[in-house]
Design brief:
By secondary structure, the protein is mainly α. Helices cover about 80% and strands about 0% of the residues. The protein contains 14 helices and no strands. Helix 4 (about 65-90) runs antiparallel to helix 11, helix 5 packs across helix 14 and helix 11 (about 230-260) runs parallel beside helix 14 (about 295-325). The radius of gyration is 19 Å and the shape is globular.
Length: about 325
């Protein structure tokens, strides 16, 4: 399958079409709305499902297969905010606190982008390590911690001491609801194993694609509400929101190949590296760096990078993985 065919196949799937429907619904100003409790329920389901299935896969594969790629994922999440900060400060002339906030978002990960990538690989029949959701769990926190500390150093610790900021960042990075739910579900899946998955398959496996489609309908509406802010962020941040994910995706794929992942698994690590958080990171930044401009970090993550990744990014990262693996030992 060529790149254009792959893009077409991705755009024609129910989940992506529901995302487009959500964009259209907001753009034409319909009265379609998701109740907040329903949005939270869909989020909890998706995170619990992907974490639980990942935990089962870890129990089957064993921790020995996981530690090296997981360590690479943690390192990747920690260093991405550093060079993002430097690029935004030097190239974009952004305020230090805004550069730190955006760096935290791009070092952290988008669970929905990862889930869409898993669905994409399943649809095209490309195998991958089922325990890859563990990378999703471990990459969320390091970037938030690094970004918050960078921002605090940049503001000179005017409101809280660096120690207090570090504690707050650790709390949000490790005990924020998305990270806590992912890690908890991962542990439950690991402890219950394949028998646990068989017992819950009717809930965690069968309805998954339909619930993902509903969630992407809501995400399409949320992203479209941010489109009006695109003119405020400028051409530099727009280019940053497209180019940096591609570069991060290539680095993630290379690291995945180096740590022994399959082509599909390396693509998933690349997708995680390319994604930008819009759930855990905004909550932590809002608490820890209130001086940061939310228009900048939310618009770049949600209105630029997220739509790019789930429409054109997924086929692009798969093609990058296909190009890389014949060159790998």
């Amino acid at each position: 399958m060529g790149f254009l065919e792959s893009v077409h196949a991705n755009l024609a799937t129910p989940a992506i079409l529901f995302f487009v429907l959500g964009v259209v619904a907001t753009s034409v100003k319909t009265d379609l709305r998701f109740p907040e409790p329903l949005y939270l329920a869909l989020t909890v389901y998706l995170l619990a499902s992907i974490g639980f299935k990942g935990g089962v896969a870890v129990s089957v594969a064993g921790l020995g297969a996981l530690w090296l790629p997981a360590l690479a994922a943690v390192a990747l999440g920690a260093v991405i905010p550093l060079w993002c900060y430097a690029i935004l400060r030097c190239g974009g002339r952004m305020a230090p606190v805004d550069a730190a906030a955006i760096g935290a978002h791009y070092g952290s990960v988008s669970a929905v982008t990862f889930i869409a990538a898993v669905a994409y690989l399943n649809r095209i029949g490309e195998p991958f390590e089922a325990y890859a959701s563990a990378f999703l769990a471990v990459m969320e926190s390091p970037a938030i911690i690094v970004g918050v500390v960078l921002g605090k150093l940049a503001t000179g610790g005017r409101t809280l001491s660096l120690g207090a900021v570090a504690r707050l960042a650790l709390h949000e990075g490790l005990l924020g609801r998305s990270v806590f739910l992912l890690l908890g579900s991962l542990l439950i899946g690991y402890l219950s194993g394949e028998r646990g998955l068989e017992a819950t398959a009717g809930f965690f496996v069968t309805p998954f694609q339909g619930i993902l489609s509903l969630f992407l309908l809501e995400m399409g509406m949320v992203a479209a509400r941010r489109f009006g802010d695109l003119r405020k962020v400028g051409a530099f941040l727009f280019a940053f929101g497209v180019i940096m994910p591609v570069l991060h995706g290539a680095l993630g794929i290379a690291l995945g190949a180096w740590t022994g992942l399959s082509m599909g698994g390396a693509m998933l690590l690349g997708v995680l590296a390319s994604s930008a958080s819009y759930i855990a990171a905004p909550a932590a930044i809002r608490l820890s760096l209130p001086e940061a401009n939310p228009t900048l970090y939310l618009t770049s993550a949600l209105a630029i990078t997220f739509p790019f990744n789930i429409t054109f990014g997924l086929p692009l990262y798969f093609e990058m993985a296909r190009w890389w693996f014949p060159l790998s030992p």
